[in-house]
Amino acid sequence: MAFLSENGLCGAFGTGLRSRRGVLVLLCLILAGAPANATEPATGSEDVPGESAAGVALDRIIETPLSVRESRERAQRAVNELSRDIQDLKQTVVTLNKDLRVLEEDLLFPANTRFHVFVSLNVGEYFRLEGVELRLDNQVVSTYLYSAEERQALAKGGKHQLYLGNLSPGQHTLSAFFVGQGPNGREYKRGSSLRFTKEQGPKFVELAVADSEARQQPEFMVREW
How far apart, in whole angstroms, are the C-alpha atoms of residue 106 and residue 165? Predict the structure, then answer.
């Protein structure tokens, strides 16, 4: 019985040993069949060859002195072209304004009744013009004060259109009163009148101020064109 018990114990021991060997063999087979990179952690993203190549190519693109100069030249040409376009546009606007002003004058002041009054200045020593008051048929139609820049322009031969209006044909009287500084800086006021006949068509009158060397004082004249 002891022998049987011993055999029984040995049999049980042997059965358990074989079971353990089977488990070990199974684990070895599982480990041998697993992928080599199974133990590597997943990164969650993969590198794209095209993007890497584009990034490298972009890093290799640099600006050279030649490319910078060409860029500046192109920019300068664009600015020059834009400036020319702006100047052309300004000139077009100026021409358009002149045409509109002429058209407005033709509409508001027909040629048959148009009446112009201009101021001319040829002084410098005996009189400095400051202002003019203009009366037509004893009614004030215009007053004007002159700046230093306007006086300089008149002294260079320019003419200032003091008045533009409509005037019916017939007899009329024009009076001009000039205010300024005379010799030695004294206040000077002088008037001059003209009686004229307005006919069909435009009429031009000039208020002329000039130094008189012989009299050493300014002269004021109202004359027709």
Answer: 11
